[in-house]
Specification:
Elements lengths: L1 H26 L4 E3 L15 H9 L17 E3 L17 E4 L11 E3 L2 E3 L3 E3 L2 E4 L5 E3 L4 E9 L3 E8 L4 E10 L6 E2 L4 E5 L9 E8 L2 E2 L6 E2 L4 E2 L3 E4 L6 H7 L2 E3 L6 H8 L3 H8 L12 E3 L2
Antiparallel strand pairs: 1-2, 3-18, 4-7, 5-6, 7-14, 8-13, 9-10, 9-12, 10-11, 11-13, 11-14, 14-15, 16-17, 19-20
Amino acid sequence: MRLLYKIITGVLFLFVSICAYSQDFIKNLPPTVILTESEISLDEDEIISLDSLMNLTSLGIIDSTVIPAARLYGYVWDNRTVNPYQRRMTDMPDTLRINFSQYCHPNRNVVTSDFGYRRGWRFHYGIDTRLKTGDSISCPFDGMVRIVQRARTFGNYVVIRHFNGLETVYGHLSKTLVKVNQVVRAGEIIALGGNTGRSTGPHLHYELRYLGQPIPPKEMIDFENYTGKYRIFELCSQQFAYTKELEQVRFYTVRQGDTLSGISKKTGVSVDKICQLNNIKKTSILRIGQRIRFT
Protein backbone atom coordinates (compact mmCIF):
# COMPACT_ATOMS: atom_id res chain seq x y z
CA MET A 1 0.00 0.00 0.00
CA ARG A 2 2.83 2.38 0.92
CA LEU A 3 4.61 1.53 -2.35
CA LEU A 4 1.45 2.30 -4.36
CA TYR A 5 1.12 5.66 -2.58
CA LYS A 6 4.72 6.55 -3.49
CA ILE A 7 4.16 5.63 -7.14
CA ILE A 8 0.97 7.73 -7.39
CA THR A 9 2.67 10.68 -5.65
CA GLY A 10 5.64 10.43 -8.00
CA VAL A 11 3.45 10.37 -11.11
CA LEU A 12 1.46 13.40 -9.95
CA PHE A 13 4.67 15.31 -9.20
CA LEU A 14 6.06 14.49 -12.65
CA PHE A 15 2.82 15.61 -14.38
CA VAL A 16 2.74 18.96 -12.51
CA SER A 17 6.41 19.54 -13.32
CA ILE A 18 5.86 18.89 -17.05
CA CYS A 19 2.87 21.27 -17.16
CA ALA A 20 4.81 24.02 -15.36
CA TYR A 21 7.77 23.59 -17.71
CA SER A 22 5.53 23.59 -20.79
CA GLN A 23 3.75 26.79 -19.77
CA ASP A 24 7.10 28.46 -19.17
CA PHE A 25 8.32 27.13 -22.54
CA ILE A 26 5.48 28.67 -24.56
CA LYS A 27 5.85 32.04 -22.82
CA ASN A 28 9.54 32.16 -23.68
CA LEU A 29 9.21 30.83 -27.23
CA PRO A 30 11.42 32.94 -29.53
CA PRO A 31 9.73 34.97 -32.30
CA THR A 32 11.03 32.69 -35.04
CA VAL A 33 11.19 28.93 -34.60
CA ILE A 34 12.79 26.63 -37.15
CA LEU A 35 11.00 23.38 -36.43
CA THR A 36 12.54 19.98 -37.03
CA GLU A 37 10.61 16.92 -38.02
CA SER A 38 9.10 15.30 -34.97
CA GLU A 39 10.24 11.92 -33.80
CA ILE A 40 6.57 11.02 -33.91
CA SER A 41 5.84 10.19 -37.56
CA LEU A 42 2.21 10.32 -38.63
CA ASP A 43 0.79 8.21 -41.43
CA GLU A 44 -1.21 10.11 -44.03
CA ASP A 45 -4.41 8.37 -43.00
CA GLU A 46 -3.89 9.04 -39.28
CA ILE A 47 -5.98 11.89 -37.92
CA ILE A 48 -5.27 14.01 -34.85
CA SER A 49 -8.42 15.68 -33.56
CA LEU A 50 -8.54 19.45 -33.16
CA ASP A 51 -9.35 18.96 -29.47
CA SER A 52 -6.09 17.02 -29.05
CA LEU A 53 -4.15 19.81 -30.73
CA MET A 54 -5.77 22.38 -28.44
CA ASN A 55 -4.68 20.35 -25.43
CA LEU A 56 -1.11 20.02 -26.72
CA THR A 57 -0.68 23.73 -27.51
CA SER A 58 -2.20 24.75 -24.17
CA LEU A 59 0.63 22.75 -22.57
CA GLY A 60 3.20 24.56 -24.73
CA ILE A 61 3.99 21.55 -26.88
CA ILE A 62 5.02 23.22 -30.16
CA ASP A 63 6.59 20.99 -32.82
CA SER A 64 5.94 19.82 -36.35
CA THR A 65 3.12 17.50 -35.25
CA VAL A 66 0.94 20.44 -34.17
CA ILE A 67 2.05 23.27 -36.47
CA PRO A 68 -0.27 23.42 -39.51
CA ALA A 69 1.35 22.56 -42.85
CA ALA A 70 4.80 22.50 -41.20
CA ARG A 71 6.45 20.59 -44.04
CA LEU A 72 5.02 22.89 -46.74
CA TYR A 73 6.45 25.92 -44.92
CA GLY A 74 9.90 24.45 -44.41
CA TYR A 75 9.27 24.05 -40.66
CA VAL A 76 9.38 27.85 -40.15
CA TRP A 77 7.05 29.28 -37.48
CA ASP A 78 7.53 33.05 -37.12
CA ASN A 79 5.49 35.16 -34.67
CA ARG A 80 6.55 38.60 -35.97
CA THR A 81 6.98 38.69 -39.75
CA VAL A 82 4.04 38.31 -42.15
CA ASN A 83 6.29 36.89 -44.88
CA PRO A 84 9.45 35.30 -43.47
CA TYR A 85 9.62 32.73 -46.28
CA GLN A 86 10.74 34.88 -49.26
CA ARG A 87 9.78 32.34 -51.93
CA ARG A 88 9.37 33.07 -55.64
CA MET A 89 5.96 31.56 -56.37
CA THR A 90 6.07 32.03 -60.15
CA ASP A 91 8.56 29.14 -60.07
CA MET A 92 6.14 26.95 -58.12
CA PRO A 93 6.63 23.51 -59.76
CA ASP A 94 3.52 21.65 -58.62
CA THR A 95 -0.19 22.27 -58.21
CA LEU A 96 -1.41 22.36 -54.60
CA ARG A 97 -4.93 21.10 -53.94
CA ILE A 98 -6.48 23.19 -51.16
CA ASN A 99 -9.56 22.02 -49.28
CA PHE A 100 -12.15 24.83 -49.30
CA SER A 101 -15.08 22.70 -48.13
CA GLN A 102 -15.24 24.21 -44.63
CA TYR A 103 -14.83 27.85 -45.73
CA CYS A 104 -16.50 30.36 -43.41
CA HIS A 105 -16.50 34.00 -44.56
CA PRO A 106 -14.85 36.34 -42.00
CA ASN A 107 -17.35 39.20 -42.33
CA ARG A 108 -20.39 39.32 -44.61
CA ASN A 109 -20.30 42.75 -46.17
CA VAL A 110 -19.68 44.56 -49.45
CA VAL A 111 -16.24 44.87 -51.06
CA THR A 112 -14.96 48.46 -51.03
CA SER A 113 -11.45 47.96 -52.45
CA ASP A 114 -10.24 45.10 -54.64
CA PHE A 115 -6.96 43.24 -55.01
CA GLY A 116 -4.53 44.99 -57.40
CA TYR A 117 -3.31 48.48 -58.24
CA ARG A 118 -4.87 51.44 -56.47
CA ARG A 119 -4.56 55.03 -57.69
CA GLY A 120 -2.51 53.78 -60.61
CA TRP A 121 0.66 52.70 -58.78
CA ARG A 122 0.10 51.44 -55.24
CA PHE A 123 -0.57 47.70 -55.11
CA HIS A 124 -3.23 46.42 -52.73
CA TYR A 125 -2.41 42.87 -51.63
CA GLY A 126 -5.78 42.05 -50.13
CA ILE A 127 -9.43 42.94 -50.38
CA ASP A 128 -11.32 45.43 -48.19
CA THR A 129 -14.87 44.97 -46.96
CA ARG A 130 -17.06 47.53 -45.23
CA LEU A 131 -18.00 47.04 -41.57
CA LYS A 132 -18.84 48.87 -38.36
CA THR A 133 -16.34 49.14 -35.55
CA GLY A 134 -16.94 46.21 -33.24
CA ASP A 135 -18.32 43.85 -35.90
CA SER A 136 -17.22 40.23 -35.44
CA ILE A 137 -14.46 38.73 -37.60
CA SER A 138 -14.54 34.93 -37.99
CA CYS A 139 -11.85 32.42 -38.85
CA PRO A 140 -12.40 30.91 -42.34
CA PHE A 141 -10.75 27.51 -41.71
CA ASP A 142 -9.35 25.52 -38.78
CA GLY A 143 -5.83 26.71 -37.99
CA MET A 144 -3.31 28.13 -35.54
CA VAL A 145 -2.64 31.80 -34.76
CA ARG A 146 0.86 32.79 -35.92
CA ILE A 147 0.89 36.57 -35.30
CA VAL A 148 -1.07 38.98 -33.09
CA GLN A 149 0.39 42.48 -33.03
CA ARG A 150 0.07 46.11 -34.10
CA ALA A 151 1.72 47.76 -37.10
CA ARG A 152 1.78 51.24 -38.59
CA THR A 153 -0.11 50.25 -41.73
CA PHE A 154 -2.25 47.26 -40.64
CA GLY A 155 -3.04 48.65 -37.19
CA ASN A 156 -4.07 45.74 -34.97
CA TYR A 157 -3.76 42.60 -37.07
CA VAL A 158 -3.80 38.81 -36.91
CA VAL A 159 -2.15 36.15 -39.11
CA ILE A 160 -3.41 32.55 -39.02
CA ARG A 161 -1.80 29.45 -40.58
CA HIS A 162 -4.46 26.94 -41.63
CA PHE A 163 -4.29 23.17 -41.85
CA ASN A 164 -5.19 23.30 -45.57
CA GLY A 165 -1.90 25.14 -46.29
CA LEU A 166 -3.15 28.73 -46.61
CA GLU A 167 -2.43 31.69 -44.33
CA THR A 168 -4.88 34.54 -43.78
CA VAL A 169 -4.29 38.14 -42.64
CA TYR A 170 -6.82 40.47 -40.97
CA GLY A 171 -6.02 44.18 -40.61
CA HIS A 172 -7.35 47.41 -39.00
CA LEU A 173 -8.95 45.51 -36.10
CA SER A 174 -10.30 47.34 -33.06
CA LYS A 175 -9.67 44.36 -30.80
CA THR A 176 -8.00 40.95 -31.11
CA LEU A 177 -9.56 38.00 -29.27
CA VAL A 178 -6.90 35.32 -29.82
CA LYS A 179 -3.32 34.68 -28.72
CA VAL A 180 -0.20 33.53 -30.56
CA ASN A 181 0.00 29.70 -30.94
CA GLN A 182 -3.70 29.32 -30.18
CA VAL A 183 -5.62 26.70 -32.19
CA VAL A 184 -8.83 28.13 -33.70
CA ARG A 185 -11.80 26.56 -35.46
CA ALA A 186 -13.55 27.59 -38.67
CA GLY A 187 -16.27 30.09 -37.75
CA GLU A 188 -14.70 31.03 -34.41
CA ILE A 189 -14.66 34.78 -33.69
CA ILE A 190 -11.02 35.91 -33.65
CA ALA A 191 -11.31 39.71 -33.57
CA LEU A 192 -13.53 42.79 -33.85
CA GLY A 193 -13.39 45.05 -36.89
CA GLY A 194 -12.15 48.60 -36.62
CA ASN A 195 -10.25 51.55 -38.03
CA THR A 196 -6.71 51.20 -36.63
CA GLY A 197 -3.51 51.81 -38.58
CA ARG A 198 -3.47 53.52 -41.98
CA SER A 199 -7.19 53.60 -42.62
CA THR A 200 -9.75 56.15 -43.81
CA GLY A 201 -12.73 54.44 -42.17
CA PRO A 202 -13.84 51.20 -40.49
CA HIS A 203 -13.18 48.21 -42.73
CA LEU A 204 -11.58 44.78 -42.80
CA HIS A 205 -8.40 44.28 -44.80
CA TYR A 206 -8.40 40.55 -45.68
CA GLU A 207 -5.61 38.59 -47.36
CA LEU A 208 -5.12 34.96 -48.34
CA ARG A 209 -1.50 33.87 -48.76
CA TYR A 210 0.56 30.83 -49.55
CA LEU A 211 4.20 30.75 -48.43
CA GLY A 212 3.93 34.47 -47.76
CA GLN A 213 2.72 35.46 -51.22
CA PRO A 214 -0.79 36.99 -51.54
CA ILE A 215 -3.33 35.24 -53.77
CA PRO A 216 -6.08 37.19 -55.61
CA PRO A 217 -9.05 36.43 -53.30
CA LYS A 218 -11.74 36.53 -55.97
CA GLU A 219 -10.17 33.53 -57.69
CA MET A 220 -11.18 31.44 -54.67
CA ILE A 221 -14.09 33.24 -53.01
CA ASP A 222 -17.54 34.37 -54.16
CA PHE A 223 -17.86 37.71 -52.34
CA GLU A 224 -21.52 38.11 -53.29
CA ASN A 225 -22.62 34.83 -51.71
CA TYR A 226 -19.78 34.67 -49.12
CA THR A 227 -18.76 31.15 -50.09
CA GLY A 228 -15.78 29.37 -51.60
CA LYS A 229 -16.01 28.96 -55.38
CA TYR A 230 -14.66 25.42 -55.26
CA ARG A 231 -14.71 22.51 -52.85
CA ILE A 232 -11.08 21.87 -53.81
CA PHE A 233 -9.08 24.85 -55.13
CA GLU A 234 -6.07 24.07 -57.30
CA LEU A 235 -3.30 26.57 -56.57
CA CYS A 236 -0.47 26.88 -59.10
CA SER A 237 2.06 29.42 -60.38
CA GLN A 238 -0.61 31.04 -62.58
CA GLN A 239 -2.22 32.65 -59.51
CA PHE A 240 1.06 34.51 -58.86
CA ALA A 241 1.58 35.79 -62.42
CA TYR A 242 0.85 39.36 -61.23
CA THR A 243 4.19 39.38 -59.39
CA LYS A 244 6.04 39.36 -62.72
CA GLU A 245 4.45 42.70 -63.56
CA LEU A 246 5.30 44.01 -60.10
CA GLU A 247 8.92 43.09 -60.66
CA GLN A 248 8.91 45.19 -63.83
CA VAL A 249 7.31 48.27 -62.25
CA ARG A 250 9.62 51.27 -61.84
CA PHE A 251 9.06 54.49 -59.94
CA TYR A 252 10.54 57.98 -60.05
CA THR A 253 10.65 60.02 -56.83
CA VAL A 254 9.67 63.66 -57.37
CA ARG A 255 12.30 66.25 -56.44
CA GLN A 256 12.12 70.03 -56.13
CA GLY A 257 11.55 71.65 -59.54
CA ASP A 258 10.37 68.43 -61.26
CA THR A 259 7.58 68.58 -63.83
CA LEU A 260 5.76 65.86 -65.76
CA SER A 261 7.52 66.89 -68.97
CA GLY A 262 10.89 66.81 -67.18
CA ILE A 263 10.18 63.34 -65.73
CA SER A 264 9.10 62.24 -69.21
CA LYS A 265 12.47 63.30 -70.65
CA LYS A 266 14.42 61.60 -67.84
CA THR A 267 12.56 58.30 -68.08
CA GLY A 268 11.88 58.21 -71.82
CA VAL A 269 8.15 57.65 -71.19
CA SER A 270 5.50 59.97 -72.63
CA VAL A 271 3.55 62.32 -70.37
CA ASP A 272 0.30 60.66 -71.50
CA LYS A 273 1.62 57.23 -70.44
CA ILE A 274 2.81 58.55 -67.05
CA CYS A 275 -0.60 60.11 -66.44
CA GLN A 276 -2.33 56.86 -67.38
CA LEU A 277 -0.11 54.74 -65.11
CA ASN A 278 -0.61 57.07 -62.13
CA ASN A 279 -4.26 58.01 -62.73
CA ILE A 280 -3.39 61.71 -62.76
CA LYS A 281 -3.95 64.62 -65.15
CA LYS A 282 -1.38 66.73 -67.01
CA THR A 283 -2.41 69.62 -64.76
CA SER A 284 -1.94 67.65 -61.51
CA ILE A 285 0.37 69.26 -58.94
CA LEU A 286 3.37 67.09 -58.06
CA ARG A 287 4.54 66.79 -54.45
CA ILE A 288 8.17 66.48 -53.41
CA GLY A 289 8.75 62.84 -52.43
CA GLN A 290 5.81 61.60 -54.49
CA ARG A 291 6.48 58.30 -56.30
CA ILE A 292 5.59 58.40 -60.00
CA ARG A 293 5.25 55.10 -61.79
CA PHE A 294 6.76 55.09 -65.29
CA THR A 295 6.74 51.39 -66.30
